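User: Sequence for IMPACT family member yigZ below. Tokens please.
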Amino acid sequence: MKAFRLEVRKSLFVAEAARAPHADAARDFVSSVRARRRHATAGHHCWGFVSTAEERCDDDGEPSGTAGRPIITAIRSHAVAAELGAVVVVARWKRGPNLGRGGLIRAYREAALGALAEFGPADEVLSDEIPAGDALVRRAAVIVPFELTHEVFAALRVCGGDTLEHAQELGIGLDAATIRVEVPASAAGLLEATLSHVRDINVQWES
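Assistant: Structure tokens for IMPACT family member yigZ:
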């Protein structure tokens, strides 16, 4: 995902988000961001991690409660990210005056929300069941690298969808699977959002 940049009174905030199923994966991502050459001059690398089982955060030298907790608040407000497990790192380069506690809280939360934008609509509600009375369904052919088919099945569980057909295509330079799926019409956008991080995926909806 692309980094989200925010400038507040000459302080630069650069935020990045990633899927993280557990705290160790979150810490690994934080370490990878810190290690980048362009981040060597950042004064702070604050982060938050949320999954269905646990939460972690670090203010990294900012006043207590002004960075990590606002990042967690942003992740919690994003249903897709919170359900899948997500970590957001916000690096700060201070180039201007102090922002105060309120200014820092707003800046870190806004930067985190910007980084989470590509996870999909923040107001989607996840469910493992098809909503009562939702008789409308949509079908699609999902073309995905064979080694990543598990991502499709995981997304279907989140959306309350089903697999209709699963075929593998082999050939020169081709090793892909085509999975025909069916999801509640209300969950079509959620399926795409849940799969948005998967490389070389193509979701073709049937009319």
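Residues 120-135 have pLDDT under 50 and may be disordered.
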